[in-house]
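Friendly challenge for the regulars: who can give me the structure tokens for this chain first? No prize, just bragging rights.
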Amino acid sequence: MTNISNSPNNEGYFGEYGGQQLPPELKAVMDDICQSYLEIRDSTSFIDELHDLQRHYVGRPSPVYYCRRLSEQLGGAKIYVKREDLNHTGAHKINHCLGEALLAKKMGKTKILAETGAGQHGVALSAACALVGIECEIHMGEIDVAKQAPNVVRMKLMGAKVIPVDRGTKSLKDAVDSAFEEYLRDPQNFFYAIGSVVGPHPFPMMVRDFQKIVGIEAREQFQEMTGALPDKLVACVGGGSNAMGLFTAFLDDDVEMIGIEPSGLGLDTPYHAATATLGSPGILHGMRCYVLQDEAGEPLPVYSIASGLDYPGVGPQHSYLKDIGRVNYQTASDQECLDAFMTLSRTEGIIPALESAHALAYAMRVAPELKGKRILVNLSGRGDKDIDFVADKLKL
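First reply, four minutes later:
Bragging rights claimed.
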């Protein structure tokens, strides 16, 4: 395999993607965050503190589990899942939220701001802020506030201020815009904890670094279980943090990687968020990446049944990996997602997040034709947040 560097260059570019597409005053703030991060990243005390919290607070390592009944039912490949749903707060998001909260605290910031779609980033950040003792403010589209009501309550219980966003599509992209506007009021004292491998440098690098523990654990665990590496890795992709967390440890291995985007109600309709599949290079939220955009370069409205995936961009490292062909980006529809959600629940007693169910849907689609192969799916979150919505949707 061609060796692929896991890091961007000094300007934060992965190939032609990434960077800091920002006004000069904000570039200086981002450079300060980058310098502070690079200093603590190599600090023994920071690493020890983070590892201790990962073990005793988050509950790491999360296990890899073989889905025996599901695999037998499909009659082809063996399907394994990396159980990030078992982390404290219910998803992979806690991995980078702890790191960002610790960094903000050490930098002397007074408030942490963030956007959230499905609410898992908001819940994880609320927990991390309560842990380190710093004010937390979460911006969330009104559609997602209604759809993910249990997570809104969780955030408020842990002391976060939740700001419903009622403009535009009232979803994730608008929540990002709203949170960033609040951040611009006082970027010297506020810290914007971006919730994925997106945004201006250093966030795509930093969030990936905090998430790569997923792949490091999975690579070791899978070999202990099976004596080999997986044949395929599958993870859902919105901004792309859980996928980047899994993929990073395997980039130089002979392992196929597939990122699954939401095709929603169909790629031939406006109701999808298949950015890497149908987007084109552009500028969004301080980075250059693939974007679903109109002829004027403005982001298009996007849609997914999974609130955490309805984003019109994708991380710059994902954009680069697409261009060089290292990761294959495919899609799964709303209906496939719901089918996978119910199938895993009833064959294995594991209720997945709707986001993760997209990745599982793809694995279920291809497994029957891959007898003797092993597929590892990143089960990036638990479906507790989605059960009321799914029950209403399916009339359970």
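Residues 14-54+93-208 form a domain with the Rossmann fold fold (CATH 3.40.50.1100). The longest strand covers residues 256-264. Your move, everyone else.
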